[in-house]
Amino acid sequence: MANISNLSKERVQDILPLLYKIYPSINPDDIKERLDLVARSDWQCEIIEQEGAIIALSGYRIMHRFCYGKFMYIDHFVVDDAYRGSSTTMSLLDHLVALAERKGCESIILDTFITNSKAQKLWLNNKFQIVGFHFQRQLGA
Fold first, then answer.
1. Residues in the chain where the model's pLDDT stays below 70
2. Pairing relationship of beta strands 44-50 and 107-110 according to DSSP bridges
3. pLDDT at position 134, please?
């Protein structure tokens, strides 16, 4: 059974190695700065540890929107390469679903990069549906 727990604010920096892996195009200093800001907000993070190392994590927020009602927004979901294809992924996902239900959420919402076909397959195979597009306009450039 996976050891899943909520990441304490004192240990936030411990997830940086996994964040660096999923955001290779972002400067590590920027990731660290953004994590510091996010951790001071309503963001929460569930982690799976094995032998003292964080091997999977998912950051999330509980939010409200007109179109979704109350929902869990998954900011990021990452499993260390060495544990992909094991029960780790499903343990974390099942934990998040149960957590969202306990918190009274109507749904779980997330985004994936359009180039991340493995993540898209994971979500589609686990009852998630593509319901829209996420647009971005870069500012200040």
1. 1, 141
2. unpaired
3. 85
Annotation: CATH topology of 3-124: Aminopeptidase (3.40.630)
Tokens found for residue 64 = 């409200």
H or E stretch including 123? Answer: helix 117-124
pLDDT at residue number 1: 52
Whether 92 contacts 79, CB under 8 Å: yes
What is the residue extent of each domain of the chain? 3-124
- Three-class SS string for 71-91? EEEEEEEEECHHHCCCCHHHH
pTM of the model: 0.92
Ranges of H-type helices in 7-116? 16-22, 28-39, 88-102
CA 84, 88, 94, 95 torsion-angle sign: negative
